[in-house]
Design a protein that fits this description.
The chain is α+β, with helices and mostly antiparallel strands. The protein contains 5 helices and 10 strands; from the N terminus they run αββαααββαββββββ. The structure holds iron/sulfur cluster (2 copies). One iron/sulfur cluster (SF4) binds next to loops.
Length: 195
């Protein structure tokens, strides 16, 4: 999921949270439950024969020196990545503490990342299992159940009664005849002050 190399000194140590929060189809492991191969806090029992998804994975805390130290996943109770397809900043929360992302200083960091990256089309999306929340510079918008590869687009529009965000969530499906179709839903949210 991340081809970036770890930053020297940022070792997993006692963290094993990515072995809980993600689904791993190759070994039929569901999201939000500990992998049967994991010794929580100690590591993987099949380290020499990892599923590809595990072998390729590094979280953002390990690969981005700018990530604050308190984002170490076993402390934050969340795993952050840049999603390889959407390029969104995706936060997968430990369902054992589903409010982890709304604590400080984490929520302030999410707002700052949303403000900095929204103009580049990179969005901050928080998942608790499959339930997604989009963090915008001025508000959090619940999107409901989503898959991480669904595409989010946010347009800020001016209107007679003030600016609004138009949020579109879309999926591209391939039909049996090979044609692709886009299935999308949109919602509109007034921009709050100072955004
Ligand atoms: S979540 Fe990050 S720090 Fe924790 S075990 Fe996985 S890769 Fe290592
Ligand atoms: S196979 Fe190993 S590395 Fe992969 S989720 Fe399970 S315990 Fe973690």
């Amino acid at each position: 999921m991340s081809e970036l190399r770890p930053v020297p000194g940022r070792e997993c140590g006692s963290c094993t949270l990515c072995c809980k929060v993600y689904n791993i189809p190759e070994i039929q492991k569901a999201a939000g439950k500990w992998c049967g191969q994991c010794k929580p806090g100690r590591g993987c029992k099949i380290h020499d024969n990892l599923p590809d998804q595990c072998a390729e994975f590094n979280c953002l805390w390990r690969t981005d020196a700018a990530m604050p130290a308190q984002w170490k996943p076993d402390q934050a109770k969340m795993v952050a990545i840049i999603h390889p397809m959407t390029r969104n900043i995706q936060i997968q929360v430990d369902p054992g503490l589903p409010s982890a992302w709304s604590r400080q200083p984490y929520h302030d960091h999410l707002r700052q990342w949303a403000t900095k990256n929204m103009p580049k089309g990179m969005y901050v999306v928080v998942f608790v299992n499959e339930l997604a929340t989009l963090v915008l510079p001025d508000q959090d918008v619940q999107l409901g159940p989503m898959t991480p590869d669904q595409v989010i687009t946010v347009r800020r529009e001016s209107g007679s009664s003030g600016a609004v965000y138009e949020i579109k969530v879309s999926t591209t499906r391939t039909l049996p005849d090979g044609q692709t179709v886009e299935v999308a839903s949109t919602s509109r949210h007034p921009v709050r002050s100072a955004a």
